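[job 4471] stage=fold_predict status=RUNNING
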Amino acid sequence: MTDNDLRALGDACWERFDFGRDWNRHLHGSQLIPIDNGLAYIASRGVVGNVTVVDTDDGLIVIDCGSRHTAGNIHKAIRDWSQKPIRTVIYTHGHLDHAFGTPLFDAEAEQAGLDKPEVIGQANIRRRFQRYQDSADWNAHINGRQFKVAGFKWPDEYRYPDTFYEEEMVLERGGRRLTLHHGMGETDDHTWTWIEDARTVVTGDFIIWAAPNAGNPQKVQRFAAEWARALRAMAAKKPAVLVPGHGPAVFGAERVATLLDDTASFLEIIHQQTLEGMNQGKTLADIVREVRLPEGMLDKPYLHPTYDDPEFLVRNVWRLYGGWYDGNPAHLKPAHPDDLGRAVTDLAGGADALAEAAQKHFDAGELRVAGHLCQFAVDAEPDHVLANRVRAAVNVARAKQETSLMAKGIFTDAANASLQAIGEDEQSLYKGSRVGIGS
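[job 4471] inference complete, writing structure tokens
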């Protein structure tokens, strides 16, 4: 597919967007798409962030650099576009699919006898990389489950920035001026970049062509209100082009303004309603049940909950303000699941009876209740055949019902654990690579 075809395809996504069907499957490797004279972005097939390339009189500025696995294709796309040396690399944040391709750029510079590119990032990236080293095995486990990648390996080498900034940095290189802005959102180390002469904003994962990843249940704290404020600050620049962290660029000031406003409003509504409920003394369970988004908001092509889930955002806002205690005193110092499972199983008259009760709720479409009941039975008797079959069936149904990749991954993992326990074949419910979002 040609550059112009991809540009037209991206424009069409404004009316309908499914990452796998309407965008990702049309990409071959990493493909460069022009934005303006001396400005382009590179979209890559799979779970990897976009890369933006800025041509200057002094060489190239590259915003993000892909993952270890896509760096070669990204480098080739850059070199097919320009042979100028890569002078500067800007990290939008420190996730694996955005900031792990730099060693290839370093090697190219060394081979040519040039200085390595100057890498610039927000100051919190240092702390992120240190945390990654401390929790490498944990990160391998949760990302393997989230993206359904067996044997996922977490990297043990990190290319730290040469230059760190705090809140704002003006970068003037080769006759071009870029302004880097720190914002809190999916991460605490996020940078969005304003390219003034092209009226272009490069957002990183502040925009991902999906409901914002501000709730992820397996990852560290997200920041919904601060995320919205960063989007409002971008909108104040009145950009004509927006390059997101994932998915096609958006062209046209009106579309960009609409996208930024709608996404900020989504975050503000969830944040406001959650905080109001907390101030009223409500429990987390009640707030999760009561928070409501305007009708049709999640139907917008760029707000489909295909990766994260609004319910998870509510829980993350609660965690930010209220910690992990959810208002239920039984959860403050809870019984071990095995002990609680045995108590509930005894009360029900055995694992068979409890599994049958779970099946009845499952048949009635009450998947959440069924999930609790079969989990109690399996906690009490991990090898119980009927309990595991019901648990597998419940979690298969839940995975199929969910729209978010995160929920699908966790429910699928639970179903497969039960099937393994009773020696039956695992289910393949979704392809982990179907949504191209970072970790």
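[job 4471] summary: Residues 120 and 364 are 55 Å apart (CA to CA).
[job 4471] exit 0
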